[in-house]
Amino acid sequence: MVYRIEIHRAAQKQILSLPRKAQLEVARTIDRLANTPRPSGCKKLRGTELWRLKLGRYRVVYVIDAEAKLVTVLKVALRREDTYK
């Protein structure tokens, strides 16, 4: 089952602000979400519809719409307290 991937404009800017090596790792990971939207290591954030995926120091925050077969990446950021807000 293949999901479509959408990346919010803010997340695109965040990805472009990362170091080149991190950009490539994030891009590969986001591409893999099309085939496996809930890979091992991902976690559903309490009280929300958001999912989180760890990539070293970085976090990818996204939403899964199973009916529409859509994964929407909302944020890519360093892990800090405001990352999940």
Task: Describe the protein's topology.
Layout: E1 4-7, H1 9-16, H2 20-32, E2 43-44, E3 50-55, E4 58-65, E5 70-78
Parallel strand pairs: 1-5
Antiparallel strand pairs: 2-3, 3-4, 4-5
Architecture overview:
The chain is an alpha+beta fold. The protein has a single domain, classed as RelE-like (YaeB-like fold, 2-Layer Sandwich), CATH 3.30.2310.20. 25% of the residues lie in helices and 34% in strands. Strands 1-5-4-3-2 form a five-stranded mixed beta sheet. The longest helix has 13 residues. It is globular, with a radius of gyration of 12 Å. The model has no long low-confidence stretch (mean pLDDT 91).
> What structural category arises from helix and sheet content?
alpha+beta
CATH H-level homologous superfamily name: RelE-like
Mean pLDDT: 91
Strand content: 25-35%
What letter string, H or E per element, gives the SSE order?
EHHEEEE
**Name of the CATH class:** Alpha Beta
CATH third-tier fold name? YaeB-like fold
- What strand line-up does the widest sheet have? 1-5-4-3-2
CATH architecture: 2-Layer Sandwich
Rg over CA atoms? 12 Å
Low-confidence stretches: none
